[in-house]
Amino acid sequence: MKASNKGVANPRDWKPAENLCLAVDALRSARRILITMHRGPDGDALGSALALASALRELGREVTVYNPDDLPYNFRFLRGAAEVEKSLAAGAAFDVTVATDAGAYDRLGPDVPSADRRGVLLNLDHHITTEPFGDVNYVDPHAASVGILAYKIIRGLGGQISKDTAECIYASILADTGCFRYSSTDPECLRIAAELVEAGVEPWEMTVRVYEQQPLARMRLLAEVLSTLEVHGKLATITIANAMVEKTGSETDLTDGFINYARSVDGVEVAASFREPRNGGPWRVSFRSRGRVNVAAIAQKFGGGGHHNAAGCSIEGDEVSVRAKIAQEVEEALKNGA
Ligand SMILES: [Mn+2]
Predict the structure, then answer these.
(1) Ligand 1 centre and the CA of 333: distance in Å?
(2) What does pTM read for this prediction?
């Protein structure tokens, strides 16, 4: 789950209105379209990609959706999720390639075709730390989710919002606003959500599908992870150890959202979760802020990025040194911001 981009002191001006037109133009003349999203997709990356896929297929386009990784278990019910390809044929060529919710080109899968075969590369994003890697960069840091950008593109193409498409957009908004709770929740996303409900989305059914059919293993894992909760002043941390995850017997990442429990403790401004490396890789550190601290700026210091209130990065090193680095940066940010 990602959160708000508001409170950003000097957001870059991405000229979203102009780039929306360029995005619509590129898709209007395209026949074969590839849609992809960041690896390890979340509800927004997947929901916005599937929304576009659904609408573009209804408009008669030939659409391929690609992501090499497992899809989040609670968004697999969305229309088109079963047709997401884990690899692409060598030599596959497209008129337009769309990337959703990916802050950098290297977050995409390895099969994304090279420039001579991918057509116009369209970068749809709302991270404040986005790199302008597309031929067209339709980036709006104030958009509650990338699904909002997908909605505007579909409208721009003159497409209808079918119930299938509406569910994908609605799912993306649920994922990135924390079910209309975060500060990213704005009049625009609420208006669009109202339209999606008119298009046939049933809010309770969506809630059940996304949040109330959790695998029991996830709740057991949550109990273990919460037992690692530490609070030091305004910083709360949780640790996700390999041994805990192995006990669940699940290949799927079931830890999405756990960090929000750490942030929700009274008096906590910043939460950090530490995911133990697998196979000697780096520690994966996620951040959540209550609003005073820009955690994207902290993540960026370690080569990561994200939103004002939700960000992440990867750090090499042993647990003690990684935790110390993070504690120091958070302390510094709290001194300046909170
Ligand atoms: Mn997002």
Answers:
(1) 24
(2) 0.91
Gap between the Cα atoms of 49 and 296, Å rounded: 24
Expressed in angstroms and rounded, the spacing between residue 177 Cα and the centre of ligand 1 is 9
- Give the tens place of pLDDT for each residue, 112-169: 999 999 999 999 999 988 899 999 999 999 999 999 999 999 999 999 999 999 999 9
For 285, the 3-state DSSP assignment is: strand
Distance 320 CA to ligand 1 centre (A): 31
pLDDT digits (tens, 9 = 90+) for 41-66: 999 999 999 999 999 999 999 999 99
Domains contained in the chain, CATH given: 16-211 (3.90.1640.10), 216-337 (3.10.310.30)
Residue listed under structure tokens 């709740």: 219
Ranges of beta strands (E only) in 172-253 are 230-232, 235-240
Torsion 106-111-117-118 (CA) sign: negative
Buried residues in 174-194 as b, exposed as e (16+ CB within 10 A): bbbbbbeebbbbeeebeebbe
**Cα 45 to averaged position of ligand 1 atoms, centre (Å):** 6
DSSP per position, 128-180: TT----SSEEEE-TT-S-HHHHHHHHHHHTT----HHHHHHHHHHHHHHHTTT
Distance from residue 307's CA to the centre of ligand 1 (Å): 9
Question: Running DSSP on this structure, what letter comes out for residue 85?
Answer: B
SS3 201: coil
